[in-house]
Amino acid sequence: MSRPCHPGTATPRKPRPRRAWCTVRGVHGRCAARRRSLVALLLAVGMVLAGCSTGSDAVATGGDFQFVAPGGQQIIHYEPPEARGTLRRLSGESLLQPGRQTGIQDYPNQVVVINIWGSWCGPCRAEVNDLQQLYQNSKARGVAMLGIDIRDSYRDAAADFVHDQKLTYPSIYDPPGRSLDGLRGYPRNVVPSTIVLDRQHRVAAVFLTVVRLGQLAPVVQQLAAEPTS
Known about the structure:
- By secondary structure, the protein is α+β, with helices and mostly antiparallel strands.
- It is 27% helix and 17% strand.
- The chain has four helices and ten strands.
- The chain has a six-stranded mixed sheet with strand order 3-10-9-6-7-8, covered by helices on one side. The protein has a two-stranded antiparallel ribbon with strand order 1-2. A two-stranded antiparallel sheet has the order 4-5.
- Helix 2 (122-138) packs parallel to helix 4.
- The protein is globular and about 40 Å long.
- It starts with 28 loop residues before the first helix and ends with a helix.
C-alpha cells in the first residue's frame, strides 16, 4: 500500500551538496557562463577607458593619437577637441623634389588634410579633383594639403599622376609607408584614406573611404574657424 502524501508529514530529504561554480578544469556550464560575463564586462570597461565618444560617431583617446574605429566605421569624427589625439610627427621625402623632406612640421598652426593615395589606385582618381578644389578654396584660410604616395615602385609613375591630375599640393613619396608610423593603429592598407588635423595637429576626422568635397569641406571649414589654442 502506498503511503499517503500529506504536507507536514513527509519524510524530510537530506539536502544535496551545493555544486561548485567552477570545477578544477573549468568545464562546468555555469563556470563558463560566469567567465563569459566577466570577459564582456572587462571589454566594456576597456572601451570606456579607451576614450571619449561623441554619440556613436567616434572614439578618441586624447594625448598622442592612437587609432580606434568603433564598430568598423569608415568615417570618424573626434570630438570634443580636448579628446583628440595629437599627431607628433609625419614626414618623408618629397615626391617632386627628391632629397627634400616635407611633412606636417611645415604647417604650424594650420589645418592639415593628409590624403593617402597611389597612382595604381582607381578610386584615388575619383577624389583628387575634389581635394585639389578644396585646397584652392581654403588655403588662404590656413588650410594645407599633404599627399602620401604609397606602394608605388616607380617615382615617375607617381609624378606623372600628379602632373596629369594638375595637383598643386605637395606629396610624400613613400612606397613602404614608413611615414605613417606615427599613426598608431592606423590601417595603412586602406587606400585611399584621408586624415584631417586641426590647427594643433590633433586628429579631428578620418575617412577610410573615397572622400568627396561635400563631406570634407564642412569639416575643414569648422576646424579653420576654431581657435589655435
